[in-house]
Amino acid sequence: MDGSASYDSNNIFGKILRGEIPCHRVYEDDETLAFMDVMPQAAGHVLVIPKTPSRNLLDADPSVLARLMPVVQKIARAAKDAFEADGITVIQFNEPAAGQTVFHLHFHIIPRHEGQALRPHSGQMEDGDVLAANAEKIIGELGS
Ligand code: AMP
What we know:
Elements: H1 12-17, E1 25-28, E2 32-36, E3 46-50, H2 62-82, E4 87-91, E5 107-112, H3 128-143
């Protein structure tokens, strides 16, 4: 990779990891954080990120991915149950040309219902109370 696409710790998810800005957390362990997307493409849209800095999938260490993916699966299962979804879409963008807007590796987990289109990517900001309630629903499933 050339120097034009390196990790910049000033990105918004880096700030969330350092506690500089808040998030609606649904899960955390030593390696991973999962929290609600503030501009959800459907109710229950969660982002799963590694704590180890990587810009995206292209520069991530495979060992980081190996620890991240079981959490992606765990959150996907919990979100599916919490929202009685028919399916789960997992999305991951790499570089601006592919749609990436925040440059810390993340996986989108989006509950889907039959016949319901996704809302736009980085569209409308959701109400904080709604995000908090949706986070609680997923946390409830993780605990069971
Ligand atoms: P992308 O980099 O395009 O895969 O997407 C970045 C995602 O981060 C978008 O879905 C945004 O809605 C979401 N987002 C941006 N800022 C925040 C934030 N402070 N907390 C939670 N989600 C965010």
